[in-house]
Amino acid sequence: MTYLLSIIPLLIIFFGIVNLIRMAIFLIGSDIYSLKKHLARNKKPRYFPTISVVIPAYNEERSIVPSVLSVLNNNYPQEKIQIIVVNDGSTDKTEQVIKDFVINRGAQHIIIVSQENKGKAHALNNAIKNFATGELIMCLDADSYIAPNALKKAIIYFENNNVMAVASNVKIAKSKGILNLIQAFEYIICYQMKRAQTVFNVEYIIGGIGSMFRRNILEQIDFYDTDTVTEDIDLTMKILRFGNKNIRVVYGSDVIAYTQGALSVPDLIRQRHRWKWGRYQTFLKNKNMFFSREEKHTKRFSWFYLPFALYCDFAFFFEPLILSYMLYLIIGYKDIPTLLSAICVITFYMSMSILAEETVNLRDKIRLIILAPFMYFLFYLLSYVEYTALAKSFLKLKDLDKSLSLNISNWNPIRRKGLLTTQAEMG
Is 11 helix (H, G, I), strand (E, B) or coil? Predict the structure, then answer.
């Protein structure tokens, strides 16, 4: 017991130093990203390419219309937009709801595709291969929607011929409840990290909500694979097999999309377990990219950032041990300075992330910064969720290789209550 108590402080120091360095690097990278965006803030599109927006849907009768409407309300030339809704064997009224909407709206450029239930990746492939005509392809989840200027903002990134994909800035749609607040904070902080990942060219996740791709790169990589449960991570890594020196996948902080948060802790655990398991599947498929010696991959990406992603999961397993030790010090020795210092560090990092988010107005920034110190405690609920999801994934690691051969890419949806959007968000 004495030996264990002597090791724990060393672990806290080691993990703490690594985490502080990580936060500092991300804050610096985020600032560099902001500076570049500020210098190009008045940049206008030089041309308007055709865009096919693909919306795969499974049992989304309450959300499909707001999702489609957000595309129709974009300030982009309507003759340049094609919308493809893929009903993947829904058992509710999704298909009828969208058909009624198209008839009432008279929107002839909306294509409705119905297929047997095969999974999201199959639905996306069907739409892109057989129906999409756009130079650029945007993938938008049916439980999500985009801001009125999202399409116009996204195409500017593709004026760089090396850019193959752009990730949107995803925000949690406004709703009541502590869990929704926690997820809203989490998304702001995590997407600030993506700014730094773009600056340092180590981005490897172009999420499925509002992401945009060049059609020709999707054709080159033979579209989405159907053997993982996170088709978006898998697709990004397929693109990066070509390298990350001359090919770029980037984050668009001004390409705003909104999605619904999980409504309960069990749903959130299921969601995060799928994300982690799918990432491990993708890492296994692309294990040769770790410590790659090929010139097409940067050392920052293959020798540092990909291994660091696995290190973070390993380090997180020590979270309960470290938390227990901190509680032991705080309660047993009334070591309040340790608690206060931890709260101050996390509050500072959250506040810097909030201040750097140019898409949040000043009033909301002030409100979020006031709430930031309390989030130190509320984030332990998120830690519980992440730890449980990680543990479930680790317990199944022996079946990881087998899971790829099963070729399963089902939806595994969580409960939704339908999209509630404001006029400002929808346009």
Answer: helix
First-to-last alpha carbon distance for the chain, in angstroms, is 61
* Residue count (the chain): 427
CA nearest to 66, candidates 427, 425, 421, 417: 421
Per residue in 167-206, pLDDT tens? 999 999 988 899 999 999 999 999 989 999 999 999 999 9
Are 257 and 379 contacting, i.e. CB atoms less than 8 angstroms apart?
Answer: no
Long-range CB pairs of 406-410 (<8 Å, 24+ gap) are 406/227, 407/226, 407/227, 408/119, 408/227, 408/229, 409/119, 409/120, 409/121, 409/122, 409/225, 409/226, 409/227, 409/228, 409/229, 409/231, 410/119, 410/229
Q: How far is CA 416 from CA 55, 167, 270, 278, in A?
A: 17, 23, 14, 22
Q: Is-contact 193 204, C-beta < 8 A?
A: no
Q: Which of the 8 DSSP states describes residue 171?
A: E
**What whole-number distance in Å separates Cα of residue 257 and Cα of residue 101?**
22
Q: Which of 238, 248, 255 is nearest to 203 (CA)?
A: 248
- Retrieve residue 331's tokens: 């309660």
- Among 238, 50, 224, 249, which Cα is nearest to 132's? 50
Q: What is the pLDDT of residues 257-294, one digit of tens each?
A: 999 999 999 999 999 999 999 999 999 999 999 999 99
